[in-house]
Amino acid sequence: MQMGAMQDFELRVMRLLDHVAREHPTREVVTRWADGRETRNDWAGIHRNARKLAQRLVKWGINPGDRVATLAMNHEHHLTSWYGAMGMGGVIHTINPRLFDEQLIYIANHAEDRVLFYDKQFQPLVDRLKPEWTSIERYVVFDDLGPDGFQALLDAEDGDYAWYEGPEREPCMICYTSGTTGNPKGVLYEHRSTVLHAMHAAEPWVMGLSASDVILPIVPMFHAAAWGLPFAGALAGAKFVYSQTNDAAVLCELMNSEKVTIGSGVPTVWLAMFQHMDATGEEPRFLRQITVGGSAAPRAMLARFMDMGIKPLHLWGMTETSPVATALAPGPGWGDLTRDAQLDIVCKQGSIPFGVELRIVDDEGTELPRDGETSGRLQIRGPWVVKRYFKAEQDAVDAGGWFDTGDVAVLHPDGTMQITDRSKDVIKSGGEWISSVDLENAAVGCPGVGEAAAIGVYHPKWDERPLLLVVRKPGSAVTPQEITQHLTQHVAKWWLPDEILFVDDLPHTATGKLLKTVLREQYKDYKLATAA
Ligand code: AMP
Prior knowledge:
CATH architecture of the largest domain: 3-Layer(aba) Sandwich
CATH superfamily of the largest domain: ANL, N-terminal domain
Radius of gyration: 24 Å
Number of strands: 23
Number of domains: 3
Strand order of the largest sheet: 2-1-10-9-11-12-13-14
Shape: globular
Bound molecules: adenosine monophosphate
Strand content: 15-25%
Distance between the termini: 71 Å
Low-confidence stretches: none
Mean pLDDT: 95
CATH topology of the largest domain: Rossmann fold
Number of helices: 15
């Protein structure tokens, strides 16, 4: 068949930066540095600095397709490094400084990073790992104001540079998963997938961004591309406010002085903000929306934002999905619902926007109904979902193109999706599934419980039964009976843990999630009294 007759316009990331610098050149990019300094740039300035950086990378002999790494918090130079590296055809690799040393060594070597830009607070880490990193040739400190620092490097160039051009399916960025088992895996984003994801993320039924927004991404740029905000925000022409620290007092002050309308972060970040608000009586006065994801946001948190008149945009995604997949999207009749009914929806992980296809399947891969009750393994496909991990020999998707997320979910008839667990964590009792997450969330609602982890342990009759490990709050003497009593109000009777044990602490991953693999290993031979 003859092809259509429209223009060749490759969906490359630099089109986003060109657009925002042309249409919103004076929209600001503000940074509060860790030492208290504040710098004010704008999108025209970021465009200029990105050209200068691209020039320098070319002079250093970096080639299109080469990986340029960063180890840094959020600030304008970090943003410049993304666009500068991608502008010369490079692939930006954001390294998560909270990973363990062996993972940090593995991923930089696996990605074959050639340059590392980093914050001086990570100098000890860099000194420690430098001898192990085999491919990095150049190290530059972002916040060094001296002759070898990032600013001096930019100042030495004139910015007379035209972006490298190539096909839209070329890579532009790599992010590694912070997996709990095995080595981290690299997800290689393309120019095309990144632009499509930016268009999706900015949509009214996803983040709903516009040029009147002022965005403060608390989510670090090394966590799943800061949820795509540096791209979606550029597309929308938004102003950006960055803070190099995550101190709630600084964040709250910036939110008010810069009139921030959108903040984005994981639930723990917002908990810290609430503590600050309760302690000082201050509160962010201009926020219209907060985006929260990375793990399930507690109902009480979402309710508090609603009561403040702030839209709590609960979203779900993963590094493998660029990362935003589903988001809260109020449907027909939303305004007629009671506050509680609205909260029920806000607590779920959102609706399924165009470009994302979801289904749930059982362990044999048979599709399960969207009936609001059946839970199954959540699978996803779409143009910004991973196909194959970097350097892997096999695709990460099945013959139908479905990627298994490792999450367990329920799909509701109203089109919303609800995560109930991770598939490895779900407790399989008598052929039915018990959500470890639901048990834990119910348990932490019991006064005196600081943190809780539910794991399945062997049972001769039921296969597995729940064991609940609890860290008491300081000074609390809460008993297993009290916790069980509390749980009966929130979960089905057959979900109640067979035993509750008290522990001093629980293991966590680098991104703060419970490390259940370690717990399962530790309790694999545990004999439940009910198993006798
Ligand atoms: P990461 O790739 O580190 O962002 O982790 C992705 C995982 O975080 C997902 O597979 C989920 O298990 C979890 N996650 C992300 N967002 C949510 C959410 N809103 N509710 C529950 N779990 C979430």
